[in-house]
């Protein structure tokens, strides 16, 4: 997926959080310019008493992988910041909303240095935005 298209999904997701009363900061680090881990989006609401550090993954394939290094970086950032680490999934070739996985509880380890993300699991355990912010 092109960087421009991925950026559009990040902005779209940020807009959805804004409409739900969350402040949003986009801080992508996929360009490799930062040596420190940071999420794609940092969203929070004092009214709802929630802060999420979100890594967004877009996919055309039903199954893909996310490295354990990337997830551990998100977890470390979240611990320091006091945020809930979330992996947001957008299947661009399917008519599905953004779905959210809590880290590490909702992830499936693969044999290597990755977690496997598959559509069956994501649609079964992933939460929609409304569910995520109302938990």
Question: Could you provide a short overview of the structure?
Answer:
This protein has 4 helices and 8 strands. By secondary structure, it is an alpha+beta fold.
Account of the 3D structure:
By secondary structure, the protein is α+β, with helices and mostly antiparallel strands. It has a single domain, classed as Trna Endonuclease, Chain: A, domain 1, CATH 3.40.1350.10. It is 33% helix and 32% strand. The protein has helices at 3-19, 68-81, 119-125, 129-134; strands at 23-26, 41-45, 50-59, 63-67, 84-91, 99-102, 108-109, 114-118. The strands form two sheets. A five-stranded mixed β-sheet has the order 1-2-3-5-6, sandwiched between helices. A three-stranded antiparallel β-sheet has the order 4-8-7. Strand 5 (84-91) and strand 6 form a beta hairpin. The longest helix has 17 residues, at 3-19. The protein is globular and about 40 Å long. The protein starts with a helix and ends with a helix.
Structural class computed from helices and strand pairing: alpha+beta
CATH class: Alpha Beta
Order of neighbouring strands in the sheet with most strands: 1-2-3-5-6
Question: Which segments are poorly predicted (pLDDT under 50) over 5 or more consecutive residues?
Answer: none
**Radius of gyration (Å):** 14 Å
| Mean pLDDT over all positions | 91
Keywords:
nuclease, 135 residues, DNA repair, alpha+beta, Trna Endonuclease, Chain: A, domain 1, globular
Question: What's the helix and strand layout?
Answer:
Blueprint: H1 3-19, E1 23-26, E2 41-45, E3 50-59, E4 63-67, H2 68-81, E5 84-91, E6 99-102, E7 108-109, E8 114-118, H3 119-125, H4 129-134
Parallel strand pairs: 3-5
Antiparallel strand pairs: 1-2, 2-3, 4-8, 5-6, 7-8
